[in-house]
Amino acid sequence: MTALLEVEDLHVEFRTRDGVARVLNGVGYHVDAGETLAVLGESGSGKSVTAQAVMGILDTPPAFVTRGSVRFHGEELLKASEERRREVRAEGIAMIFQDALSALNPVFTVGFQIEEQLRLRRGLSRAEARARAIELLDLVRIPHAKQRVREYPHQFSGGMRQRAMIAMSLALDPEVLIADEPTTALDVTVQAQIMDLLAEIQRERRMGLILITHDLGVVAEVADRIVVMYAGRIVEHADALSLFRSPGHPYTAALMRSLPRVDLKGTALETIKGLPPSLLRIPSGCPFHPRCPRAEDVCSRVVPGAVGLGLGRTSACHFAEEVVRG
Ligand code: SF4
Ligand code: MG
């Protein structure tokens, strides 16, 4: 069966003055209707770049897709015209960003920004579009939607702006919603509220939801499947339950050890030693080997392929089977 959205073997390079940064090195994932996929990784792991390639908004710095495929309902988007890309962006796959303030236009009211799409793309009248905008603000639980629809983004709190951006992204009923660190700028309580809201809307509308995050804790309760990225590759892909029960890759295991746990209050959290590699000089063999507590000689020489661990799980580690057994 064709997946709703499918990314396959995606390679992206940034051609910079300092050389070629290999930002994505064979990334693949898929999401279906009614499903939440979390894409987890540190900054620079390629999670946002993958999303930008899916959206067709990959432009800074000079970025080139050198190989791979992005299919929406089986249609190859990497070969589609700019007009078709715009159409898919408007109606098929929507994206919300970490920083709602810079994603919303400060000179227009929140209502206007929602209504404009409805008038342009759906041919609604001013009055119809206003009524729909109020419904959407209600849906994302912005109180007093009738009044607030007339306000400007700066009159909204951070959490309310993020809600407004979600409302805007839902205006044209996308089938897939990509949320790139949607709660990072918010305090913990508001984070949880926004995450609950996204999960609820995703269920009700049976959207495919791709949640991009550096924080495993944020997605623990809402993700069906998780892909873990490192240095422009997917190092682990698993259903959320199995991954939490027994991580299949040393990097995932390290991320989990760095999570605060209620049952271990007071114990020091472990951090992962070292830094993610420069994408201009990705380490030989397994890119995680300079930081990996399990690394052996083979790791610096041979790039590990994806090892199947059953139930559709994979891990790109030479010792995946031992790692998953704990
Ligand atoms: Fe660690 Fe080696 Fe596995 Fe890479 S292949 S994650 S270095 S054990
Ligand atoms: Mg990012």
From TrEMBL:
Gene3D superfamilies: P-loop containing nucleotide triphosphate hydrolases. SMART domains: AAA. NCBIfam families: oligo_HPY. It comes from Saccharothrix mutabilis subsp. mutabilis. The lineage of its organism: Bacteria, Bacillati, Actinomycetota, Actinomycetes, Pseudonocardiales. Belongs to the ABC transporter superfamily. This is ABC transporter ATP-binding protein. It is a peripheral membrane protein. Transmembrane segments: none annotated. One of its GO terms (molecular function) is ATP binding. Keywords: ATP-binding, Cell membrane, Membrane, Nucleotide-binding, Transport.
